[in-house]
Here is the input.
Amino acid sequence: MLENFSFRTIVEYLPLFGQGLVTTVWLSVLSFAGALAVGIVLAAMNLQRGRLFRVPAKAYIDAVRATPLLAQLYFLYFGLPRLGFVLPELIVGILALSLNSGAYVAEIIRAGILSIPRGQVEAGVASGMTYVQRMRLVILPQAFKVTIPPLLGQAIVLVKDSALLSLISVAELTRAGQLLASDRFMPAEGFITIAAFYLLLYYGLKGLAALSGRWLGLAGART
Amino acid sequence: MIWQQLQSIAGSYPLALRGLGMTVVLSLISLVLGTLLGFGLGILRTGGNRLISSAIGAWVDLIRGTPFLVQIFLIFFILPELGIELDAFTAGIIALTNLAACFICEIVVAGIRSVPTGQVEAALASGLSRWQRMRQVVLPQAMRIVLPPLVGQYVLLIKDSSVVSAIGLTDLTRVGWLVVQRVPNGLLVFFLVGLGYFIVCYPLIMLARRLEQRMGAAHGEVQI
Here is the structure.
């Protein structure tokens, strides 16, 4: 195989790979923004005393964590049209990634908020702050710091998960590899090239996670 | 209409059982192999030989940095070109085992590094051999750190096994995909598929949570 590994074909397909890479990047960015929104809402629900909000949030998080993303993706892809929502594959994919990652983001945010020592809250209460003031001025600024590295870890997971969208024929990076593999019968060229592109994104995000840990002055920052 | 669909879905239960069986078999085999290999790699990586250690580190990074779907495609389509004939099942097992081994390696390394050096020095001073040190002193203490994420990793492995449906293995996810072609009710079909995974994964998630709490409690005792 390796003796006729065709770099020329890879170069020829480079525009296609470039488009795939760009699509993967921006659909990941959109999905991550969606995941943050879903995660913040779920975490807020999960931290309430009352069961009315906490139970559904917990049930949602458990359901997402105990089932594969691919099954969730197919659930939306084959299920949404039945409810009357005929959406493009790309939108379904972004929706699935947001809803899936949102559950993990919720857990990260919750852990971050719970990591703030109780004394901080009590000090806030003793200073006569309201709930909103305590959240905004005491808890969230500190929680924000500890959540950044694990959130970047989740972003890495999300970028890799986005490869599954190729299975509902979204024209992202993995799909570009599949095209080269099937058009020219060159799976090695196709899949090794996209693996290299994914590694590029991985090391980029990993470096960012390490840097953010240093900037935020987290000694034992886990990524 | 719903009734007809339910009947039609119920009619395909032998297929569903086969799919569930495939998911369980795939997960179980690669779970056992991946754990063995992962512990081996983890021990080798902390073993002090810098060349071996960095080679393992580089491989783990390659696997952690690429999507599992791409790894499956690489194994399934490229190994045959290198003259290694393999069917989809073997390719799935290789891909899942490799993935599990790499993540478990990292977990084991973190566990081994959490054991205080004093323990190793004490073992050295007692004249224990390398193997004895590992088996009788380091690993038993490392297991406290290793166990909760290890169970969590098993959950990830079972979920990742759904991706092998992409190379045509008839696992639970693939069965859902086949059934939905005949019964056009994706919500119902994939709700049932999800339920199948949930029944297997949820107890494991609970177990991981309990182990974590128990370990946290044990940790607290030490600090007091």
About this structure: Chain B has a mean pLDDT of 89. Residues 186-223 of chain B form the longest helix (38 residues). Chain B touches chain A at residues 62, 64-71, 73-74, 77-78, 81-82, 155, 159-163, 165-166, 172-173, 176-177, 180, 184-187, 189-191, 193-194, 197-198, 201-202, 205 (CB under 8 Å).
